[in-house]
Amino acid sequence: MNEVVEKVLVSQEEIINRCVELGAQITEDYKKAGEVPYVVGLLKGSVPFLAEIIKHIDLDIQIDFMDVSSYEGTKSVGDIRIDKDLDCSVQGMSILLVEDIVDTGRTLKEVERTLLNKGAKDVKVVSLLDKPDRRVVDIEAEYVGFKIPNEFVIGYGLDYNQKYRNLPYIGVLKREIYE
Ligand code: 5GP
């Protein structure tokens, strides 16, 4: 275990098993609806999760990435800046957004609004983690890997000062590292 990690919250095995379940659920739901989602990962945190979950989605999907940042000082739902946009138009498309974690929900709410404004037909969200206690805007991911308590976590895409994204598990960061 990495020395900055207090404890492992979700192991690699648990993540992969959950990706199998979520992938099967997503496949079934989209097949029922007769749709194929355009799978959009939010950089950089979603990368390891996206790489795992797409292996378990049995549909002819395409993947793409967006990089967004919140404007400094934004306290309520505000605008986002798009640092990297999608490769093609989303007009009429069903989007499956892939996130690492839903915390306050502000990022997702804004990305969803932006995609709908650009003409997406439908936006659904799959998130590896969810911290429901921290939510300040009304948004829920349709598919959630694990609900976790309000602790700062790293690994499997999640960083602290851009590091630790490559840990193969979700761990709680030791308080002494950031206090
Ligand atoms: P939201 O807009 O939902 O508040 O923020 C979501 C973003 O905040 C995530 O994509 C992630 O980058 C960051 N975030 C929220 N909670 C954590 C956490 O516990 N650990 C890390 N590393 N990032 C977090």
Structure notes:
The protein has helices at 12-33, 47-53, 106-117, 175-178, and strands spanning 5-10, 38-42, 62-70, 80-84, 94-102, 122-130, 143-147, 153-154, 170-173. By secondary structure, it is α/β, with parallel strands linked by helices. Strands 4-3-2-5-6-7 form a six-stranded mixed β-sheet. Strands 1-9-8 form a three-stranded antiparallel β-sheet. The protein is globular. The model has no long low-confidence stretch (mean pLDDT 94). Bound molecules: guanosine-5'-monophosphate (5GP). Residues 45, 99-107, 152-154, 158-160 line the site of guanosine-5'-monophosphate.
Based on the model shown, name its key terms:
alpha/beta, six-stranded mixed sheet, single chain, three-stranded antiparallel sheet, binds guanosine-5'-monophosphate
Strand proportion, as a percent range, falls in 25-35%
The value of Rg in angstroms is 16 Å
Helix content: 25-40%
The strand line-up of the biggest sheet is 4-3-2-5-6-7
Poorly predicted ranges (pLDDT <50, ≥5 residues)?
Answer: none
Q: How far is the N terminus from the C terminus?
A: 21 Å
Whole-number average pLDDT?
Answer: 94
String of helices and strands: EHEHEEEHEEEEH
Bound molecules: guanosine-5'-monophosphate
Tell how many strands the DSSP assignment holds: 9
SS summary, helix count: 4
Q: Helices and strands: which structural class?
A: alpha/beta
Q: Describe the sheet with the most strands.
A: 6 strands, mixed
